[in-house]
Amino acid sequence: MLAELSIKDFAIIDQVQVQFREGLTVLTGETGAGKSIIIDAIQLLAGGRGSVEFVRHGAKRADIQGLFYLDSSDHRAYEKAEQFGIEIDEEGMLVLHRIITAQGKSICRVNGKLVTLAILKEFGQTLIDIHTQHETQSLMDSDRHGDLLDLYDQQHIAEAKREYRQLFHDYKKIQKRYEALQNDEQEIVQRLDLLQFQLKELEEANLQENEDTRLEEERNILSNYEKIYQNLNDAYEALYGEDKGLDWLSHAMTSLENIKAYDDELAKKAEQMTNQYYIIEELAFDMRNKLEEMEFDPNRLNEVEGRLNELNRLKRKYGQSVQEMLEYAAKIEEEIDQLQNKDSHLQQLEIQMKDNQKDALLEAEQLHKLRRQAAERLKNDISRELKDLYLDKAEFDVEFTFLTGKDQDPQYAGRPVRLTENGFEQITFVLSTNPGEPLKELQKIASGGELSRIMLALKKIFAKHQGVTSVIFDEVDTGVSGRVAQAMAEKIYDISNRSQVLCITHLPQVAAMADTHMLIEKQVSDNRTSTKVKELNHEEKIDEISRMMTGAELTETTKDHARELLDQAEKHKKLLPS
Length: 578
Description:
This protein is of the alpha+beta class.
């Protein structure tokens, strides 16, 4: 849920800090008081497009912060946090922060970490779902309907969709290799010449595994021969030279041997001393042997340098190491074989491609059947919601359109279909609001009041599947009144039982349903306009709902009507399952 929102120097808001609760929060106020400005701020926090126009006149920057609490460890925001290296504490706290400077620059942070606007938007989409009166909603976007249907019945569809996508990607990978091998003959000849030249160069280099590492180690020794020899000789002389360090160690060993019989602890020390003496003696012999073996050969250093230069030249063309160059040689040797035996490889790839295509089609058919079944259930659920909203004559349906295929594409139901990442169909929600009218796409429905109710019915069904933390409605109830307004108020409240809902409204019926009622007021001080937010108590709710009913001077009659609305709202809440 959105727990706290802080806005500073944004439009006509100088500074506002609002704490939100779970359930339904309603924001009301006179036109122009700044209600929609608060929603604009939340939209920017969720990655919306910014503008210098949002910066309060005379201020250097607009500053917006939102504190969210994730209610579940499997919330999609955790996946995003892991993807972008952002830590979320045990309480599930997530802070989004957006700054817009007076110069138009945008600074975004998530839990204190600087992120791009695109990343901020990805987090915002997992947390907030905003619906405004004029904005084209994702629910109305036919390109999103397939995903929404899959979300609606993801229990059955998700696994089938994953399996299909894997098969589809395997098919496209083989298809890409097949098409590449079918390229223009001249292009193939040129490619073959290039690969043969590269392979010849690598073979003539006579590369050995880890050769570069071994040569670099040898060069390091040869380049530092004098320093290594001098220090190794000094170490040996310290043990066996004039100072004869080993003689002193031998003397110490003999002295301890002479007294070990008198004390168990001394006996242990004597044994340790004896062991260490022979270890150091053996080490001294090793150093002497190493000194005898060492021989500086300036010609060998030149050979090593020359070979490393040659390897580095090849690395610039074929890989970062000798191992990578050997792997590349094996790869192009295989490609040369494919090009030289193109016809046989094409036959093999064609067989493999058809097998993969067949498997993908079978899974696409299964996915299509599951979607058809889900569509029937969705159709019934939406119809019930529309009936509750007094659109009982409306007819909702899910339209499946097969994507056009070519002759070589697989066939479904006797026609060629084109396989895509999501299957072979386009899914569109269609509706007719009056008997006898044809079914139309949702965005083509003209009536604002009808569109609001349709959107709300869809939102009621999909809210629990989309997994967002907060659902925000900005005057989506425009164009309705009476019993329809009451029905919409009840639907909005029902959604708040699954997700936190913030709702800007002019309808008293919706305001009466609120668990929390906030009043947005515009104030003028020192010739500057600012917006203030105030949480209303019960009596103040009655006054505000009365004002929403009449817009005139409050009377006891309008207050009684407001009390009646609040009583009805409480009765509706008690009837809902806990």
